[in-house]
Amino acid sequence: MLKKSLAGLAAGALLLSAAACGSGDDGGGGSEDGLVVGFAQVGAESAWRTANSQSVQDSAAADDRIADLQFVDAQQEQEKQIDAIRNFITQKVDVIVLAPVVETGWTDILTEAEQAGIPVILADRGIEAADEDLYVTRIGSDFVEEGRKAGTWTTQEFAENDTTRILQLEGTVGAAPANDRNEGFFEVLDSEGFSYELVDSQSGDFTAEGGKAVMETFISTHGLDDIDLLYAHNDEMGLGAIQAIEEAGYVPGEDIKIIIVDGSKAGFQAGVEGKLNYIVECNPAFGDQLMDLVVQVANGEDVEKFTPVEEGAFTADQFEAELPNRQF
Ligand code: GYE
After folding, report:
1. What is the separation of C-alpha 327 from the centre of its chain, rounded to a whole number of angstroms?
2. What is the rounded CA–CA span in Å between residue 121 and residue 323?
3. Where in the sequence of the chain do the CATH 3.40.50.2300 domains occur?
4. Looking at domain 143-282, which CATH architecture does it have?
5. pTM
């Protein structure tokens, strides 16, 4: 009950009344004190990720139905996630939550979890369709839809252009949000019959350093004079690229239009300063929804295969009003 009293401090009367109702015993696979959950998180590569970890940890701490959340930061390495899952299996946790760094390579370890009778929930990123039977449900964003939003804005913004010349900063190679944000973006450009040239496209691994380094290479290889748009798969890479653009003597947001995905405070701040032009929101705050799913899954209830989180997109005229609302 130590955790409960800490959580009670944070959540106040509401939680205390819930505890008084005896909701600690969920009737599922957990002990009387609640469920033990193992969470193999991607890493700490971005503000989005930090906010996501915080959301999940806060929600677990405040939730009487959860006895313990074992949190592993896998530093963007699949091997570390596989080790963490194997460890969760040995410990016989009630539910495993995995935010898979990449889409492929999960068959063996998820089969081990299945054989041990431990249900797996995917949080945030997805895995390849062939392994769909090896997890119960996924909660997270529709990354293809995020890419479509970026694509739609592009076709409108550059409607008068003959051919729009584009640079793309991709997320981690093989990661669902990198694959899907790419797919949705070009799906719209192609289906609209939009004339463009993808001048270059490389991974910046979802980090600011990665984004900056790749942008420096882009600039030295192609120059920026004939480039219209940079599409960065997350804020950090976009912000790193902005630094590289400024250091090369160009004006980000003007000499080159920029789209980012996530919508952190730092991203919006750069937008308010005119350094970027379109923000596709990606929402990391699904901890409460995830805990509900954990309990439902532990109880063997039927759940949807995919629970999308709500998100929008913002044009330059909306940046200033939206900045104070950003939570991460
Ligand atoms: O956009 C990026 C993070 O998987 C949705 O991962 C997440 C992505 C997010 O590194 O900033």
Report:
1. 15
2. 32
3. 11-140+284-310, 143-282
4. 3-Layer(aba) Sandwich (3.40)
5. 0.90
Task: Note the CATH number of domain 11-140+284-310.
Answer: 3.40.50.2300
Atom of ligand 1 nearest to the CA of 262: 1
Q: pLDDT band for position 23 (50/70/90)?
A: very low
User: To test the ligand 1 pocket, which listed residue (41, 42, 45, 48) has its Cβ within 8 A of the most ligand atoms?
Assistant: 48
12 band by pLDDT with thresholds 50, 70 and 90? very low
Mean pLDDT score of the chain, rounded to an integer? 92
Neighbours of 20 (CB within 10 A): 9
320, amino acid identity: E
User: Which SS3 state, helix, strand or coil, does residue 206 take?
Assistant: coil
Size of the chain, expressed as the number of residues it contains: 328
Strand order in the sheet with 35-41: 66-73, 35-41, 95-98, 120-123, 137-140, 306-308
Within 124-263, where are the H helices?
A: 143-157, 176-191, 208-222, 235-247
Whether 125 lines ligand 1, by a CB cut-off of 6 Å, is yes
